[in-house]
Amino acid sequence: MMKKVQKPAVWSALALLVLTVGCDGPHHVDETDDGYDAERFGSPYGIETNEAPVAPYEPPVIVGDTLVVMVTYAGGCAEHAFELASSTGNEGTRVWLRHDDGGDDCEALVRDRLRIPLPGHVLGSSRIHLLNPNEDIPFILRWNGGETS
Predict the structure, then answer these.
(1) Beta bridge partners of residue 31, listed in sequence order
(2) Count of other CB atoms within 10 angstroms of residue 101
(3) Contact at 8 Å (CB) between 61 and 112?
């Protein structure tokens, strides 16, 4: 007959602590409940790929030396600004937009097609990915020197 051995409460508490904190220890990430990284992307926004559910798919693209991307955000009462940020590594260049809502507390859904000039170091990269603030999968803007469209 097998004997049940009760684990001390200390082991249960330790296991819960490891699961909660993780192996790397506690670390702060400025994210909302849905995983939005406010430290990187600024005020919340989304990248839209069509103007309406029945409209054709229009992903962000590079046209000439300009990034064209449609974004949505809550607002309508103050000026909003988007700035381009980037990092380059072995996998190419990653770009993302940082949104400043200007303290706007209005909640209307604003849709805006942005045209943002890309700096030379970004345009010189053979691979360019646009990070999506609400998804883990980036948009591929350029792969091995060829632009996508």
Answers:
(1) 37
(2) 20
(3) no
Record the pTM. Answer: 0.73
Q: For 105-148, write each residue's pLDDT tens digit.
A: 999 999 999 999 999 999 999 999 999 999 999 999 999 865 55
Cβ proximity of 67 and 84 under 8 Å: yes
Q: Are 90 and 55 in contact (CB under 8 A)?
A: no
- What's the DSSP call for residue 43? S
CA atoms within 13 A on the CB side of 75: 21
143 in Cβ contact with 127 (< 8 Å): yes
CA distance 77 to 106: 6
User: What is the amino acid identity at position 91?
Assistant: E
By DSSP bridging, strand 139-143 and strand 61-63 are unpaired
Residue at 53: amino acid letter: P
